[in-house]
Write a structure and sequence with these properties.
Layout lengths: L14 E5 L11 H9 L2 E4 L2 H10 L9 E3 L6 H12 L3 E4 L13 H9 L4 E4 L4 H9 L6 E6 L4 H12 L4 E7 H14 L5 E6 L7 E6 L3 H7 L6 E6 L12 H9 L4 H12 L3 H11 L5
Parallel strand pairs: 1-4, 1-5, 2-3, 2-4, 6-7
Antiparallel strand pairs: 7-10, 8-9, 8-10
Helix pairs in contact: 3-4, 7-8, 9-10, 9-11, 10-11
Length: 292
């Protein structure tokens, strides 16, 4: 294998190549991806028109016959035809409309069948909105779970979220602008109030927008965003368990109030429990109505 300082392209052998494309900014494409798309025998993509448009922008000359349509609804027959090409010694580059193939995009069955037939699968790594959002969010990256798009019904969404929130890892979710508000409301209902959340909209594009907030603020967040158009990635920080239950806040406040003012009590508990001051202050006002 060549060392990192040797700028040499690997030999293009027969096999299936998973080629990552930019998620927005075209200049994010890698040199190797350009080389692979230019020199592979065939390119398989979800929308052949999109592939041709991309090739035009990248100034890649490719015969229309060498561009194959492969998408979620492609049949076993289509997969068989692609594998037959590989069997004949050809190289096939698989691309998605944006980002890395197989990440909420078609390709798993094709990869699995290719491996089962005894042929090689290669990665040409590059951009991924999943990793871009996670690293930009400022939330824990040591462990994370990618959920893709959530189910359509609220009950299924809630069940899935509750399962993964218990893992104590960051969660990465894809969402559309139309469903964003309801998803944020469900997160506010499901997560602990202080759970940190980040929304990345239109990553690497001219209208990129990153919004950070806590779960209890999620209901009002969309009103502050510049737009609800485009593609959204939600990153939910660790929903860490604490040695505290919000139901016991009354007891905590009464106990600490004996030696502190309301303001100092709120400040102390907010820092100790890592929950918003306004939640504690609102509770304090209902308990100590007669105090200023």
């Amino acid at each position: 294998m060549n060392s990192m300082n040797e700028f040499v392209y690997p030999e293009i052998k027969s096999g299936l190549y998973l080629v990552s494309l930019p998620v927005g900014c075209l200049s994010d494409i890698s040199f190797r991806a350009l080389h692979m798309l230019s020199n592979s025998d065939y390119v398989a993509g979800e929308d052949t028109r999109s592939v041709r448009s991309l090739f035009k922008l990248l100034k890649i000359s490719k015969s229309i016959k060498s561009i194959i349509s492969y998408h979620d609804h492609s049949s076993a027959h289509t997969r068989g035809k692609i594998i037959e090409l590989i069997k004949q010694g050809k190289s096939v580059a698989l691309v998605s409309d944006a980002g890395t193939p197989l990440i909420s995009d078609p390709g798993y069955k094709l990869v699995k069948n290719t491996i089962e037939e005894g042929f090689e699968v290669f990665s040409v790594p590059g951009p991924s909105s999943v990793i871009a959002a996670l690293t930009t969010s400022g939330l824990p990256t040591d462990t994370f779970s990618f959920l893709g798009f959530l189910p359509n019904t609220k009950s299924k969404k809630k069940k899935l979220l509750e399962t993964y929130l218990n893992l104590g890892s960051s969660l990465i979710i894809f969402e559309s602008g139309k469903r964003l508000q309801k998803t944020l409301e469900l997160l506010a209902e499901t997560c602990r109030p202080s759970t940190e959340i980040c929304i990345c909209r239109e990553l690497t594009k001219i209208n990129e927008e990153v919004t950070r907030f806590q779960a209890h603020e999620g209901i009002k967040v969309t009103k502050k965003m510049r737009s609800l158009k485009g593609e959204f990635v939600i990153v939910v920080g660790k929903n860490e368990a604490r040695d505290f239950d919000l139901k016991n806040l009354d007891e905590q406040l009464r106990k600490i109030r004996k030696s502190m003012s309301i303001k100092d009590s709120v400040d102390f508990l907010a820092e100790k429990l890592n929950i918003p001051k306004k939640i504690i202050y609102k509770k304090a006002l209902t308990i100590f109505k007669d105090n200023n």
